[in-house]
Predict the structure.
Amino acid sequence: MEKLILIVEDSPETLELLKRIVENSGYKTIVANDGEKGYKYAIEHKPDFIILDRLLPFMDGLTICKRLKEKPETRDIPIMFLSILDTEGDIIEGLRCGADDYMKKPFSPDELLARMETIMRRYKKSFDNMNNLNNLDKSKEVS
């Protein structure tokens, strides 16, 4: 099954570039050009990964990230900020609000994909380990 990537970016040029990069790597995409749509799409579609700008109309990226991480149904969706806000304070603020990674614009497409794939691989391992523990607990109950 194809992984679904949500891209939330208000610059049409950057949005189209990200969409092309991600789709050319074999992923399906959903795109949103403002924060409200991005938040709504994340809740509705529960993507496998979110690439999120910080500076967005209607709802900023930090607010989206915090709200998604507070909801049980979306808190395990990995989020990467991709932003022009690039001070050490900006990066720390983004990571502390719940993001899994933070990249600065301009960005390298290869690095973006490598980081995205690494994070999704870690989440899959975590999920698999959790399932294995749950299955082990269930087998002890049956014995």
User: Anything to note?
Assistant: The chain has a mean pLDDT of 91. The longest helix spans residues 109-142. The radius of gyration is 16 Å.
